[in-house]
Amino acid sequence: MQEPEEKKIARELLETEQAYVSRLHLLDQVFYTELMKEAKAGKMVPEEVVKMIFSNISSIYQFHAEFFLPELRKRMEDWNCNPRIGDVIQKLAPFLKMYGEYVKNFDKAVELITAWSEKSPPFQELIADIQKRKVCANLTLQHHMLEPVQRIPRYELLLKDYVRKLPPESPDREDAEKALEMIFMVAKHSNAAIAEMERLQNLWVVYQRLGLEDDIVDPSNELIKEGPIQKVSTRSNSTSEKYLFLFNNMLLYCVPKVIQVGAEFQVHLRLDVDGMKVRELNDTQFPHTFLVSGKQRSLELQAR
């Protein structure tokens, strides 16, 4: 007799979970533990750095190894008299929020590995030594670290498939559908964490281009648009090249630096968006001009 489709998917979930737990074991019990041991001996890298690289991998490993995998195994052993996994996945879903922290930290972790590999040869040697072991399957630490980032989307795909293949009268239908909805919410949650991280990353790059002026650097700002602009001078009847950064709360009127050491621009003026007015001007000599007037002052600008 042919095995039902939904059972095949449940088995695939169990098999990929076993492989995943051994990958987590490698990250937590081998890489993290051995690097930490060396760091504690004060040889090659500060303990703080090792902790920052591995984020909350220990909690993730323990959760999967001690709870989710054993529960899944038990389900598959009892499958013939109790064909269901939906309830177990519902228990899993809330704990997947732990991934938000890991995912948010991922880029920084990879940067730290690169930086410290250059700074500390013993650190690099220990990683290279672990990577040579059979358990690493010729893959780098960074590659193994990507696995938790990819795991939640994998759960989502498998579960979607599982729900699709369930017979309408299956006792697991209600639970499985609810579980899928919960996993979907968590996946969205970790995507939001990534989006927020990218926003901050981009914001930081803009701040560096502006020379990290104290009163401008604020993580809650949002960059809306940036680009070159001509400043119209009515007195000398000419225009000069300037650059604008429009944030949700301020407009920065900048001058490109000729010698770009550190910053690309110098902020000449900061206008609050609050109370700002913009109106088009019908200037025959300078087409596409508009007037920006704020609490601080007014600027006559020309777009391309």
From TrEMBL:
GO cellular component: cytoplasm; cytoskeleton
Subcellular location: Cytoplasm, Cytoskeleton
Highest taxon of source: Eukaryota
Keyword Disulfide bond: no
PROSITE patterns attached to this UniProt entry: DH_2 (PS50010), PH_DOMAIN (PS50003)
Keywords: Cytoplasm, Cytoskeleton, Metal-binding, Phosphoprotein, Repeat, Zinc, Zinc-finger
An annotated Gene Ontology molecular function: zinc ion binding
PANTHER family in UniProt: FACIOGENITAL DYSPLASIA PROTEIN, FYVE, RHOGEF AND PH DOMAIN-CONTAINING PROTEIN 2
Listed InterPro entries: DBL_dom_sf, DH_dom, FYVE_RhoGEF_PH, PH-like_dom_sf, PH_domain, SOS1_NGEF_PH
The PH domain, residue ranges: 222-304
Every DH domain range: 5-193
Protein name: FGD2 protein
Any Gene Ontology biological process: filopodium assembly
Main location: cytoplasm
Gene3D superfamilies: Dbl homology (DH) domain, Pleckstrin-homology domain (PH domain)/Phosphotyrosine-binding domain (PTB)
Upper taxonomic lineage: Eukaryota, Metazoa, Chordata, Craniata, Vertebrata
